[in-house]
Amino acid sequence: QVGEALERTGTDEVWEFGAGSGALALQLLDALGDRVQRYTIVDLSGSLRARQQAKLVAHAHKLRWVDALPEKFSGVVVGNEVLDAMPVQLLARHGGQQGGVWHERGVVVAEDGSFAWADRPTALRPPIDIEGPQDYLTEIHAQGEGFIRMLADRLTRGAAFLLDYGFGEDEYYHPQRHMGTVMCHQGHLADGDPLVDVGRNVIPAYVNFTAMALPAQEAGMHVLGYTTQAHFLINCGLLSKMELLAQVERATAAKLIMEHEMGELFKVLALGAGGAWEPVGFARGDRSHRL
């Protein structure tokens, strides 16, 4: 998909946000060859940058690292599990839809020195009304929306592919999702309380993809597609590649497209700067109408 996007947008540079170990960058650089003249990694972590430099040494002549975007740039942007790591604001409704009061949930230091939750009334609201008589905890994504607006303002020509777990707005704020989506991860363990073992957890939240698509459109970008990871990878030819794998590797790859694994929960949002076009990854199963 990245190769097609480079060709259709007439660009030759890839920008990756939060490149982690550098594994995805290595695969893209190996696969795309001379179609990529420069690969820019936007990452704030010095330790990760060192790991990336070691893994990507064979492509050192194409690489550069930055900690901020330039005022204007072009190319194909890749963000794999970037949006979910951006901070969210917690909103709690005490009481039901009729007469319920919304609060912003924050953290205070208790008398014994530990951290505790505290709510205060706020004018902030989820983007849609949430039905039901129950208390309700959810998130809004101001920083993620700000990131999209910055991207739209500075990307003069190209495309962006954002892969993450999440939902469209109607699913995100479903009445039954009354405990929110924030979850803590440490090692291979998951926990729902960010105030336990503070500083040692990764604390992501699911992505409201409608909240990412709307500011992009308002800023003049095109929503080129939105679909599940399963549809995206199958459209891009994963099944034919899986046929060439050994059974163990095939089982691992299948987790990327199985509904009860990552295939349904993970989504892909494609945004374009410049003219609209139809990326191959969304040829079947596009859900843009559900944003």
Short description:
By secondary structure, the chain is α/β, with parallel strands linked by helices. The chain is about 25% helix and about 30% strand. Strand 1, helix 2 and strand 2 (about 40) form a beta-alpha-beta unit.
Topology:
Elements (H helix, E strand, L loop, with lengths): L1 H8 L3 E5 L5 H10 L5 E5 L3 H10 L7 E4 L6 E8 L8 E6 L6 E9 L5 E7 L14 E5 L1 H13 E13 L1 H4 L11 E3 L2 E3 L15 E2 H10 L3 E7 H7 L2 H5 L4 H8 L4 H5 L2 E8 L18
Parallel strand pairs: 1-2, 1-4, 2-3, 4-9, 9-12
Antiparallel strand pairs: 5-6, 5-8, 6-7, 9-14, 10-11, 13-14
Helix pairs in contact: 4-6
Describe this structure as you would to a colleague.
- The protein is α/β, with parallel strands linked by helices and 291 residues long.
- The chain is built from 10 helices and 14 strands.
- The strands form 3 sheets. Strands 1, 2, 3, 4, 9, 12, 13 and 14 form an 8-stranded mixed beta sheet that branches. Strands 7-6-5-8 form a 4-stranded antiparallel beta sheet, with no helix packed on it.
- Helix 4 runs parallel beside helix 6.
- The chain is globular.
- The model has no long low-confidence stretch (mean pLDDT 95).
Q: How many helical stretches? A: 10
Order of helices and strands: HEHEHEEEEEEHEHEEEHEHHHHE
Distance between the termini: 22 Å
| Largest sheet entry | 8 strands, mixed
Share of helical residues: 25-40%
Q: How many E-type strands?
A: 14
